[in-house]
Amino acid sequence: MKRHLISAADLSRSDALLILDTAEELAQLADRPIKKLPTLRGRTVVNLFYEDSTRTRISFEAAAKRLSADVINFSAKGSSVAKGESLKDTALTLEAMGADAVVIRHGASGAAHRLAHWVRGSVLNAGDGTHEHPTQALLDAFTIRRRLKGQGARGAGLDGLRVTIVGDVLHSRVARSNVLLLSTLGAEVTLAAPPTLLPLAVGSWPCEVSYELDSELPKSDVVMMLRVQQERMTAAYFPSVREYSRRYGLDVERMARLPGHAIVMHPGPMNRGVEIAAEVADSVRSTIVEQVANGVTTRMAVLYLLLGGTEFPATEAGQ
Amino acid sequence: MTAGPVSAGPVSAGPVTAGPVSAGPVSAGRGRASAAEHGRWLIRGVEVPGYGEPGERTAILTEGGSVTAIGPGLQHPDARLLDADGLIALPGLVDLHTHLREPGREDAETVQTGTAAAALGGYTAVHAMANTDPVADTAGVVEQVWRLGRAAGHCDVQPVGAVTIGLNGARLAELGTMADSVARVRVFSDDGRCVADPLLMRRALEYVKAFDGVIAQHAQDPRLTEGAQLNEGEMSARLGLAGWPAVAEEGIIARDCLLAAHVGSALHVCHVSTAGSAEIIRWAKSKGWPVTAEVTPHHLLLTDELAAGYDPVFKVNPPLRTGNDVAELRRALADGTIDCVATDHAPHPVEAKETEWSEAAFGMTGLETALRVVQRAMVDTGLLDWAGVADRMSVRPARIGRLAGQGVPLAPGAPANLTLYDPAAPAEAVTPEGASKSRNTPFAGLELPGRVVATFLRGVPTVLDGKLA
Asked: Is A176 on the interface with B (CB under 8 A)?
């Protein structure tokens, strides 16, 4: 594996499987009364968050703490960043404090790339602008594999599974990372969205494209709904939220067209009643809460593998 | 220094080999030095493209700021001798598009440092863009820039005036007053911003007819490029950077060509960056419309794939485009559809580029590397010969800029503005350090052929042996 995790494209199939299999080992921890491992004791993980994202930050924080790492949360608000300190100066500060890993969330595409030039530790991209969010893709792949291939499915990819990703692909870092990772793992990915919300050059991506959701549903093993930002409407990406919902929202009626085993995913936070109906979000097909739990496990696996923990968790987890 | 043949000096055209006549070229204010200070120079072993057979070596004699003779075996008893064996002599290069940053951003560049960079790049004249702070939208500011240029003396500085007050695209600046000022402004541009309002553009084009002006348009539809960061295509999709569609440039160019035809006034299109733009300009010229265009060195060589690492040194407006665009721009420059190469030299301090891509400033330096890039992109590829380079980098830009005394093909009687270039100098990697105050060259580390050996401004060397004279 590379030293940083910035793009899902950094991961080969064997890298991705190693992470998923490691996460599978670590998942057993979650069932034990004491969830903590000593593997990253003495290591420092900095959560550098330029965007409000409590959900992702606490997921990384929980992951690092369960591996016994010291965690420093560096939020852009109320810090020197708010006073106009550059990303480079912040990076040098963190470097001087001896960060072994920096988890960065930033509104600018490529921020994680840039940071990797200025720090010696590992950089984990926790979402950069409209570029990528690779750990989200990993936790999604992990969730799909557990649900559709079984919990003991170590070493297995997602070969042959059909995944439909629905919504604002153009502005979605989740979609970019998922297209790359899921196709690396053998899944057949289809993007379903209005043409305005797809990149013009989407034809060069390793996936299919459809402007229609209904035709994709009967052949989907997984439907992943993306969050729709209200502000897209004012920029004329679609006429109204209601029309978007009518054409691309997943309601009960549409859910009924899915095969019996199919699952419904959402990276959160959801707009209930817009891209996903409340009944769908709360149905047995929905993996939304599992995704949150799997997020901690998958991020533990990534931190463990990037930072080269001292003891392999399997030996302890197996006890 | 008598009749002897061309001295056996090094091919790299070393420094002056003898200097019996005083003619001390270094003096304050030499930019407008009087005839007495010019002295005489005999430049020998040089090839003058378009003069004699291709590859034929000859000599150039300059006296009193003018070329007085060209021919093999020229002699003069008291001329300083410059051994230019194997070098090419071009009429001094003219840049239609330079950001000198003064007044306002002297941390990025000054007229002094920017014109020094220009001279080292072989330029004898630059057009200073209007987007300074304050904006060059009054006679006062253009005259200030013009005076700073004269004082610096490395090359002529011709100020460009803003089209609209503060570049705000709302009200015309006092174009006529700038034209009538000491700075004699003829080129007007809101460069950095587009004159997007079609009515205002029409009026500007019409108005400058009164004093033979030209509107140099920065063609960028503002609505189609809101928040845009990188050419819209495979790279922008992959990198998650907001796309900058080719049509945002082409749509404005098409409109402006139609407007120029309608009112019969001169339009110049700045930094053409797409294949489609070249096609539209080709079409407009086929109609005989008064349209000219420029292309930058970076758009002749670099593509958007360089953005893969998010290094903002490759962030520029208009953005780097695709390999197909580069090929079509080269073809358009070769066939004359695009009239000239203009650097769009845009210096920025380190911190403006050492940041996230979307936060970083647009722009690249280019004065010191332009000719080498053109050699690589156009000459070494067989698309343009050296006479063509002289035309595209000196003659035509001077004509478009209405610059007297610049861009005159080398011949007896022409001003002694000339650039001596060694195209056979071994390719060397570009270093960011130079005379410019800024280091944001996209060519750093890239091996480029050639070397500017000497530059003469009205008979006075501004550069000798590749160094400021």
From this structure: yes
- Whether pLDDT at B150 is above 60: yes
Q: Smallest Cβ distance to A113: which of B229, B243, B310?
A: B310
Task: Give CA–CA dist A97/A99, Å, rounded.
Answer: 6
B435 is a domain residue: yes
Q: How many domains does chain B have?
A: 2
Instruction: Determine the pLDDT at residue B330.
Output: 98
The residue type at A74: F
Is there a contact between A201 and B355 if contact means CB atoms under 8 Å apart?
A: no
Contact between chains at B355 and A173 (C-beta distance less than 8 A): no
Residue of A108, A173, A201 with shortest CB distance to B359: A108
Interface check A128 vs B, CB under 8 A: yes
Residues of B recognised as catalytic? 344
Mean pLDDT of chain B: 92
Question: Which of A109, A125, A132 to mutate to test binding with chain B, by most B CBs within 10 Å of its CB?
Answer: A109
Neighboring chain A residues of B354 at a CB cutoff of 8 Å: 86, 88
pLDDT digits 0-9 by tens, A274-318: 999 999 999 999 999 999 999 999 999 999 999 985 444 443 433
Task: Find the mean pLDDT for residues B298-319.
Answer: 98
Is residue A28 predicted with pLDDT exceeding 90?
no
| Residue B2 vs residues A87, B14, B63, B83, B459: alpha-carbon distances, Å | 65, 19, 18, 14, 21
How far does the CA of residue B222 sit from the closest CA of chain A (Å)? 14
Q: Which residue, chain included where needed, has tokens 């940041």?
A: B355
Q: Are B99 and B428 in contact (CB under 8 A)?
A: no
Q: Do A201 and B236 touch (CB under 8 A)?
A: yes
> Which fold would CATH assign to domain A134-288?
Rossmann fold (3.40.50)
- DSSP H or E stretch at residue A58: helix A54-66
pLDDT of B250: 98
Contact A109 B238 (CB under 8 A): no
From A88's Cα to the closest Cα of chain B, the distance in A is: 7
- Residue B11 domain-assigned (yes or no): no
User: Which of B400, B433, B455 is a domain's end point?
Assistant: B400
Same domain for B265 and B131, yes or no, is: yes
With beta carbons under 8 A apart, name residues in chain A contacting B306.
none
Closest partner residue to B237 among A86, A114, A200, by Cβ?
Answer: A200
The pTM of the full predicted model, rounded to 2 decimals, is 0.91
For residues B68 and B103, membership in a common domain is answered with no
Q: For residue B389, give every residue at least 6 positions away whose Cβ sits within 8 Å of its Cβ, in sequence order, or none.
A: B49, B90, B371, B374, B375, B378, B379
Residue B352: domain span:
92-400
Identify whether residues B168 and B297 lie together within a single domain. Answer: yes
Number of cross-chain residue pairs from A and B with Cβ atoms under 8 Å apart: 66
Same domain, B109 and B61: no
Q: Where in chain A is the domain with CATH 3.40.50.1370?
A: 8-132+292-317, 134-288
User: Does A113 sit within 8 Å of B240, measured CB to CB?
Assistant: no
Scanning the structure block, which residue is given the tokens 């799997």?
A: A294
Q: Give Cβ neighbours of residue A123 (< 8 Å, ≥ 6 apart).
A: A4, A5, A6, A101, A102, A104, A112, A115, A116
Q: Which of B400, B430, B451 is the last residue of a domain?
A: B400
CATH of the domain at B37: 2.30.40.10
The label of the residue with tokens 């008598």 reads B2
Instruction: Say if B184 falls within a structural domain.
Output: yes
> How many residues are present in chain A?
319
What is the dotted CATH code of the domain comprising A8-132+292-317? Answer: 3.40.50.1370
Which tokens belong to B241? 């950077």
Average pLDDT over residues A182-196: 98
